[in-house]
Specification:
The protein is an alpha/beta fold and 354 residues long. The chain folds into 2 domains: 167 residues, Methionine synthase domain (Methyltransferase, Methionine Synthase (B12-binding Domains), Chain A, domain 1, Orthogonal Bundle), CATH 1.10.1240.10; 128 residues, Rossmann fold (3-Layer(aba) Sandwich), CATH 3.40.50. α9 links the parallel β3 and β4. A 5-stranded parallel beta sheet has the order 4-3-5-6-7, with helices on both faces. The N terminus and C terminus are likely disordered.
Length: 354
């Protein structure tokens, strides 16, 4: 179960481990993802600072050896520490062409600013390094490429959420530092999610209503859920962060949703009395009243929270969501008229914020 607070706002626990070295003879795109820079940046460094690959295949295609990558990692580490690019390149060119350090070798590329990520995909490391450098173009390019190659669910669970989580851990351990990294990364993640085009909605059907609890500002997981449901042509009404309780009640009555997903990142925003009142809302004309399924998402609704403990009695038509992928499956079942058992989704990956 994810602990509350800024240290883990987006997913499950990530243990700190040194990075793994990339394989030999990588193409430019793979090196860019590993380093967290755009391919254009690599070509610019080659043109301006002579930091190109040692060899090319057929005289055209770049192939980067471990020694080439080691120099580029040093370039990234120095520029992340504030060294001007020209000076960083001069130092990197003077570095012997040795293979990158393994698990027992040097510190994570990026120096003391680097994020500890554990055993994650190379795309995750690249995104983290770009975010720490505040390299907005690289962050944007890497997010677009990752979403295109992996799809939304895998990209969120294996790349985006672990990176956001690592930023939160760094922020929590460094006081108010690294807030700028979290803000830049969150903004670009939100932008990338909103660029995902939803599929045309199916025949008219009751929507799924998504909202963050009053006072809850963490909305990125709900934005990911909005995009995932849109890909599946499910009608969605997303109300964003900190929706007041009166507005939430009115939205439910006006839209008659099939389900209401209520996100609470913090235990202080997981209001059991609000959940109970939403679960009891009736909508529709007299004689044909309907109810919505209530789906509680986010670590704030954990059993140990004070609000959850204050109302031990189970709520009708209510389910917890555990993980983005399993959460989407639960919502699809509810939209099809099949409300799952209370055990549905338990034990699923916690990358959605369980």
């Amino acid at each position: 179960m994810t602990a509350p607070g800024p240290a883990a706002p987006y997913g499950g626990r990530v243990e700190p481990e040194p990075p793994q070295p990339p394989p030999a003879a990588l193409a430019t795109g793979a090196v860019a993802r590993h380093l967290g820079v755009s391919p254009t940046t690599l070509r610019s460094w080659e043109r301006r600072y002579a930091l190109g690959p040692a060899r090319r295949e057929d005289g055209r295609h770049r192939r980067w050896t471990p020694g080439d990558v080691a120099r580029l990692e040093l370039m990234c580490r120095l520029t992340a520490q504030g060294v001007p690019p020209s000076e960083a390149a001069r130092v990197a060119r003077g570095t012997p062409a040795a293979a990158p350090a393994g698990p027992s070798g040097a510190a994570t590329p990026g120096g003391p600013r680097a994020l500890r990520l554990g055993d994650v995909r190379p795309e995750c490391r690249g995104l983290a390094r770009a975010a720490v450098r505040l390299d907005a173009p690289a962050v944007e390019d890497l997010l677009a490429a990752t979403l295109a190659e992996l799809g939304l669910l895998t990209a969120w669970e294996e790349v985006i959420a672990p990176t956001l989580h690592a930023v939160g851990r760094k922020w929590a351990s460094a006081g108010e530092r690294y807030v700028e990294v979290e803000h830049l990364l969150s903004w670009h993640v939100s932008s990338a999610l909103r660029r995902i085009r939803p599929a045309p909605e199916r025949l008219p059907a009751p929507p799924v209503l998504l909202a963050c609890a009053p006072g809850e500002q963490h909305s990125l997981p709900m934005e990911a859920l909005t995009a995932a449901l849109g890909e599946r042509a499910l009608p969605v009404r997303m109300f964003g962060p900190a929706l007041p309780s009166d507005a939430l009640h009115e939205a439910v009555r006006r839209t008659g949703p099939r389900a209401v997903v209520l996100w609470a990142q913090s235990r202080t925003t997981a209001d059991a009395s609000l959940a109970r009142s939403v679960a009891g809302i009736e909508w529709g004309p007299r004689g044909a009243r309907g109810h919505s399924a209530l789906l509680l998402a986010g670590p704030g609704w954990s059993a140990g929270s004070a609000s959850a403990s204050a109302s031990a009695a189970p709520l009708p038509r209510t389910e917890r969501l555990f993980g983005l992928r399993s959460g989407v499956a639960v919502i699809e079942a509810v939209a099809a008229g099949r409300f799952p058992s209370t055990a549905a989704g338990r034990g699923a990956p916690a990358a959605y914020g369980s």
